[in-house]
Amino acid sequence: MRNKVTNFVLKILQKKQNSLYRTNEGGRIIRSLRIRKFKKRGKGLLTATKIVAIWYLLILTGSYMTNDTGAYFNDVKVINNSFQAGKWDDTVPPDNDEWDKSSLSFDGTKAWAGECNVFTTIKNTGNSANMISTWRFYLYKVTGGEKPTSGHVATGVVPKLKSGEVGQISATVKENGIYRFAVRRPLGHPGKNSPDENGYSYIWSENLINVVSCTKTEPNVSEEKSEHHPESTTPTGNEGQSENSEESTPTQKEDSPTLNEVTKD
């Protein structure tokens, strides 16, 4: 019995000694078989990932080298060509001579001046709902009466007016003097009193516009006496009546009314 106990104790001491011998530190052995197993698996997965990445990189490189994608980035082509830059159309549309039943009149209108600008009102007494005909106005410089001294000094188009509507036309002058507006009817208008060589007839404003403040220079006293015009800048319609309709008039420009064409609408 004593021998069995002794042998059992010796075996325990032998195991303890062997354990101390394996660790070389006098401690217990830590089993790491499972850790080593997963460590080997991680290394294998990392290696496989690297191989797959290299494989895809080779595929992409080969695809880039064999298709046309490289041409879009590397090829340079020089194209010699020209293009026309945009240009504004400055052409003025032609006048519309088709009569739309409109009829303009200076009756009961007024006229006035402001420095180098002259103004007058005009009324559409016709039956057109929407005015489409071209009524062109002309501005003339006249003498003490109503005769134009030369061709027109300004021209423009009367704005579109509805039936019964009163509009305004204006022009710019370069010097002091007395001015008068005339309006040309469209060719289709039935009024044909004293037509010009192109078949146009005209209506004249009875209001004479006296411009006195267009220039800074003071007017000559002798000129004031010779003109005999009133100082008001908004003359009435009774001013400047015709002295003699058969008197000779200066040469007019093309499409401009002559003195014999003075009439009411």
TrEMBL record:
UniProt keyword list: Membrane, Transmembrane, Transmembrane helix
Region called Disordered, residue ranges: 217-265
UniProt-listed InterPro entries: Signal_pept_SipW-depend-type, TasA
Any one annotated GO CC term: bacterial biofilm matrix
Biased composition (Basic and acidic residues): 222-231, 252-265
TM annotation in the entry: 44-65
Protein name as catalogued: Amyloid fiber anchoring/assembly protein TapA
Annotated organism of origin: Neobacillus rhizophilus
Domain of life of the organism encoding this protein: Bacteria
